[in-house]
């Protein structure tokens, strides 16, 4: 019996969200008294044996460069074959865009109950019950998986990475040729930016900034903090900022350690996407802005005066 | 060309989230219900736009739910669906729901099945991929653009750190998100026409349940905001560093 953690990589590095999933999977496997195995799909120069530092003893590597990893069908086939080979009854994903496409498919294929958006380890004293976010972050649900096989897709930034020492054995995994009916024409990647979904820190701004020309200070603050940038929906809708920066109920839901909201009123739909952030800082000139009710720290003041002073203060600190 | 759009009923985005019956049920009192925004704004409206370019396209809708879901189905018909199915079952397990949709889809023989990216209540993001697997079709998640040619779909979708453009032959399943289409409101003619459009009620097929929701929990309330005077943002920076330990 074993547990498999689907482990993603990009630019020859294992993703931070996958390290969270590995830490989670290793902790769960310990509770279940079974082996935790990381499964890596596609060629990568990432040092896979180092995943041992996160507690897995085995890394199964499906190394075939012909695998089209954006085809959910191919991925589901590889994962289910690996699960068969290693008698895995539990599969762990990090709830990334890739997982959203493949985990439900695998759930059907393995007849394994699926919980997406998990925020904690399963409660094993209460059957097999996993807490997940519902109502766009406004509540949690405790969902029991009824089937013997189980799949959990862990929310990003919901579980702490646990690192110690150790090396893992890397086992190559060959699958039968998998054909794909998807013809990929073009891939556009935005290189170099900090991924908003994975970011620990996020600086976000809203309509209070008046226009796209005023984002310089937001970007400067973000760069100084090593933060990703985000925005409210009207800002993306007016094309002041790219759409992928839109957070909230109808945008991306994020849970960084630090979320700084500048000139955002804090509408319920905006809060839905950010209220799982650990520390929320609000800068708004209106003392009645609803965002202050959801904040940990706040400054009532004009962003055009406050933000440059924050930038100065951080520069002083760094000296 | 036949398109099936999966429609879910969700509480309005401003609805108060509270629970009753010992935190096992969502408190529906006073709640306004809407078509799940992703299903409506993106999946359905894009299907309607495609039909506006090619009138031979048929748009069917499917919802799994009790009679209380009919107002939102009528609204979807008013926006531009041609006919609708309601599978009469009150169930939340995604595998059960996907099985019902797959059954309806098999009977109807659709070229294209569209869902929203997720529902704003369950946030499962599961139904589209499950339906695709049940029907052995390709699945494109999180599409931001969709065009069609006689035998294939041209899709742009969001991937980690960027986007991807692909061509896929019919039939296939696509989950839709922002970028696909612009939200619309139904006009009077649509509303009148919707009253007489077919809405067939079907009994559910037997299907397993793989999960069940035991209870709901509200997040702990914030203890209150600590305000720093606007003249001294450096104190905020200090608090973030020394107290919150986040920078
Ligand atoms: C179905 C639905 C879904 C939605 N989904 C989302 C979503 O996913 N994400 C989202 O963000 N919104 C969403 N919205 C929109 C949401 O209701 C709000 O309209 C939106 O969040 C407001 O954006 P804002 O705070 O940037 O702008 P505003 O509400 O206009 O607020 C601007 C704020 O800036 C402050 N301000 C102005 N000038 C300054 C200054 N010089 N210094 C400091 N502060 C200043 C003002 O006091 C005000 O509080 C949704 C709405 C609906 C109906």
What does this structure look like?
The complex is a heterodimer of chains A (319) and B (247). With 319 residues, chain A is of the alpha/beta class. Chain A folds into 2 domains: 2-172, 3-Layer(aba) Sandwich (Rossmann fold); 201-318, Rossmann fold, CATH 3.40.50.1220. In chain A, 26% of the residues lie in helices and 28% in strands. Chain A contains 7 helices and 17 strands. Chain A has a 7-stranded parallel sheet with strand order 7-10-6-1-4-5-11, sandwiched between helices. Chain A has a 5-stranded parallel sheet with strand order 14-13-15-16-17. In chain A, strands 2-3 form a two-stranded antiparallel ribbon. The longest helix of chain A is centred in the first third of the chain and has 17 residues, at 16-32. Chain B has 247 residues and is α/β, with parallel strands linked by helices. Chain B has a single domain (2-221), classed as 3-Layer(aba) Sandwich (Rossmann fold). Chain B has helices at 37-53, 70-79, 94-108, 127-135, 188-194, 233-242; strands at 2-6, 9-11, 19-20, 25-26, 33-35, 58-64, 83-87, 112-116, 139-148, 152-159, 162-169, 172-176, 199-202, 211-217, 226-227. In chain B, the strands form 3 sheets. Chain B has a 9-stranded mixed sheet, with helices on both faces. Chain B has a two-stranded antiparallel ribbon with strand order 2-5. Chain B is globular. The relative contact order of chain B is 0.18. The mean pLDDT of chain B is 95. Chains A and B meet through helix 2, helix 3, strand 7, strand 8 and strand 9 of A and helix 3, helix 4, strand 9, strand 11 and strand 14 of B. The complex binds flavin-adenine dinucleotide. Residues 206-208, 232-235, 248-251, 263-265, 267, 269-270, 273, 283-286, 289, 302-304 of chain A line the site of flavin-adenine dinucleotide.
